[in-house]
Amino acid sequence: MFFDHKADSLPLLLSSVQVENGAATATEPQTETATQPQLQRQPLQPFVVGVDLGGTQTRAAIVRGDEIVARTSRPTPAHDGPAAVIAGIVAAIHATLEMSEIAMQDIRGIGLGAPGPTNSRTGVVYDTPNMAGWKDVPLRDELAKAFPSLPVYIGHDASVAALAEFRYGAGRNVRDMIYMTVSTGIGGGIIAGDIIVEGAIGTAGEIGHVIIDLRPDAPRCGSGHIGCIEALASGTALARDANALAAAGHAQGILAVHRELIAQEEHGELRTAEVDAIEGEHIRARDVVEAAHRDDPEASALLHTAAVNIGIACVGLIHTLNPEMIVVGGGVAHAAGDLLFAPLRETLKTRAFTRPAEVVQIVPSQLGNDVGLIGAAAFVEYRQHTESSQRGPTTA
Ligand SMILES: [Zn+2]
Description:
The chain is of the alpha/beta class and 396 residues long. It has 16 helices and 13 strands. It is globular, with a radius of gyration of 21 Å. The chain binds zinc ion.
């Protein structure tokens, strides 16, 4: 058990949370603390702190189930190193707790979704492509120092988002589900038989970094892989390809849409952090998607190619895991809608085994921008529920 200091809450959870997976608890003996009567009398705390750590925004919320009862957001000092980012997380949590006026003893724990390969069992963040200086940062232990009375759990952001869709969103009636987010990057989380697939050191689910383009001069993603799905089909890839067309004197239709949208936004329209992260001084992914909605041929071709590449990724997942559902979320997928989903589904029809392709439902996510917060909070309960029976490598 790697959460020894939190073991006291475990027996209570085992007796009260919904058991989604009999195999997770069936053969395990009760822990020693289960026999301590004073612990049995404690009521289960109803609230959880969820933190969505992004390269641009640090968001914290007090969550009950899928309901957000208080929230704060602050810019992530991504260029200032881990200590500054961690201080920002701590401040965001304190601010949210104060705003909610919920007592510390009513909080069950802190869950956080980290934006990069992370050991979801030890809470060590290995690497973050969008934040400087993060190498093997023991984020769980650092946060535990700041909140000694609360258990802290760190998951990969896309895996906890998958958990949110699985518990409360599109996947709440299935057992085998894959979540894919298509935004600045492409992330993923895999749930097989009600269990998050975490792998040997907790980094499983990096669907976006599966390599599908074998050309040596294929595009490279922010993590350095050549020809991975993120390098081919993410919002960053759409913007890059559109700007390359524009630099060669093409994409005039996309440029016109870009100028129109910029003019609108400068008149006060709210801009999301995600969009700001995608844009440079040139064409952004949202411009390409909007131009495709207006039937601009170059934008349509770019988006179609991205959708086929995402479809190829789904073929690999279907062949490997035979999922019941693939939930596709993220800003680009949300904005593109059927322009992404239709070619994606068509790719499955022509490229995958018939039976598993017929079975799988390809659906949009349901939880919107809060999926990361709700998932981070849900990860606390998930981990407290499953940690007694999980065994495996505990080292970073
Ligand atoms: Zn990659």
